[in-house]
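User: quick one - fold this with S-adenosylmethionine bound?
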Amino acid sequence: MSAGSLPQQLPSGGLPGPGTPAPVSAPPSTPAPPSAPAPAPAPPYAPPRSVTDLGACFFYHSMDLPGFGEVTGEWDLRPGVADYLGRVDFAGKRVLELGTADGFLTFEIEKAGGEVVSYDLDSARSLDLVPFARRRGSPVGSSGVDFAELIPRMNDAYWLAHAALESSARIVYGDVYSVPDAIGPVDVAVFGTILLHTRDPFAALARSLPMVRETVVVTEDHGRFLLPEVLGRLRQRLPRALRRPGMRFIPDWRTSTEPEGWWRLSPELLQAFLGVLGFEASVVIRHAQLYRGAPRQMFTVVAHRTVAGEPGERTGREHG
Ligand SMILES: C[S@@+](CC[C@H](N)C(=O)[O-])C[C@H]1O[C@@H](n2cnc3c(N)ncnc32)[C@H](O)[C@@H]1O
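Assistant: Sure. Structure tokens for the protein plus S-adenosylmethionine:
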């Protein structure tokens, strides 16, 4: 299903289920009722905003937008988006896409037939900034990036693209540690390069995963912390004790750093996190994505629920 074929606005209760009959058109003799404005979605979903000024928007991803043409962002995930999303079949799935930014992944999941709830911050208030982070040459405390200005412009990009692509996705604003239960349940949750920006990535996963019925997709940057592909394969042959899950703390006050990056997370660590949250069956996909025109090594962990219930109460295995 293409995003363009989806209805513009949904009732607040969500998408109709698969068995919902299609609306029946009125007989020709009946005058058409005046078209009522679509109802605004109820909280926690944010009401749609009309944004038409491309210049006001910040696009994180390159995208093709009907009526606007190609917009350019630092990341061009278009050629490798299937790998980025873990090659999951989204058709008919209800999906929570966390850290949506300008919505690129949301709109791709919609194109693949998913019904999406996007999630992101709507202000810099809840961003986990590294204390005293600075860019090289900047005074202490000055990151060079004004997140208070950037995040609303990224939200604007979402709404501009949402209208251009006639998306039906809904969005909830908030921080990843307080995703409201009212969003759930969902079949799939997607965490696209959001965990490296969180001070507590385990808590970020643990908040949403109880509402996920089937699959979690986590994509992160490989970074220098992780071994190149060929060595990574050899590493798989090492005894388990020698390939312990790891995470590296990125900030270093001596060399300066970016204020919004906390961790390089290894695939094994994410598999371990997801395992203790009830998603024990996982695979790792390694891929390259275009960042500022050059390939950058990334990986995606796709994990399937094997244990039902809330974390801590092992109520039974769903598979295996
Ligand atoms: C690097 S961008 C990733 C965009 C997209 N998901 C992708 O994979 O290309 C990180 C996104 O996570 C959001 N984010 C960062 N910290 C967050 C937090 N604590 N709660 C919610 N969203 C957060 C940012 O606003 C941003 O949109």
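One thing worth noting: The chain is about 15% helix and 20% strand.
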